[in-house]
Amino acid sequence: MSAPIRVLIVDDHAMLRAGFRTILDLQPDITVVGEAGTGSEAVDLAGSLLPDVITMDVQMPGMDGLEATRRIRADERICAAIAVVTTFDRDDYLFDALDAGASGFLLKNAGPEELVAAVRALAAGDGMLAPEVTRRVLQRFADRPAPEPRLVPADALAPERRPSPAIGSAALPSAALPSATLPWPLTDRETEVLRLVAEAWSNAEIAGELFIGEATVKTHVSRILQKLGARDRVQAVVLAHRLGLA
Predict the structure, then answer these.
(1) Which residue from 4, 89, 214, 222 could staple onto 31, CB 3.0 to 4.6 Å apart?
(2) 74 and 58 in contact (C-beta within 8 Å)?
(3) Against a cut of 0.85, is the pTM above it?
(4) Domains of the chain as residue ranges with CATH
């Protein structure tokens, strides 16, 4: 059996933390390893507990959840995916959270099954956005200047993962990325996988659709993120929509 998903719950309301703990601890594959009531506590516990997933409140006394997210993201030891959870369905929180490094955004009125699904998705490396805000994310980011991809030297990849200039590889439109050039184009298969990722398909669903192994899908997704210079799947989805691939 694989190790359970380790979750850190961050919220200034003890009752909400208790509710989240009860819901998550009932799952056989999830365990809550800690709770924090402030942003500073969240930063400290994230560094000492090294959880897989963090649910992060926005409004808290002292350091808020957005600043805590930035500081956690700045610590290279911490690989946790962060889901910002708030009662406020506001665009400024949403986009500030994504800019700070969050990989998910949920409203506190989400049902227990949505919370559990979000934790599992984030632990698997998938982004998670509440359905009611996904469209706004794509519309808002479609109007923003394109983020400059991080150019990764070819020798930074293992030899077997370095892309070759194979015939049939599909380069992304250069006009969509005016400030930089992608270090290498996406292959046809990677473009196909990115389209499905942009349609919110899971790795397992993509594997079934393309008749390939789930591990192969994960490899494709990893290479796509590296080529796009995207932090996570959420950012890759935004780029896919901006580039007309979804």
Answers:
(1) 4
(2) no
(3) no
(4) 5-140 (3.40.50.2300), 149-242 (1.10.10.10)
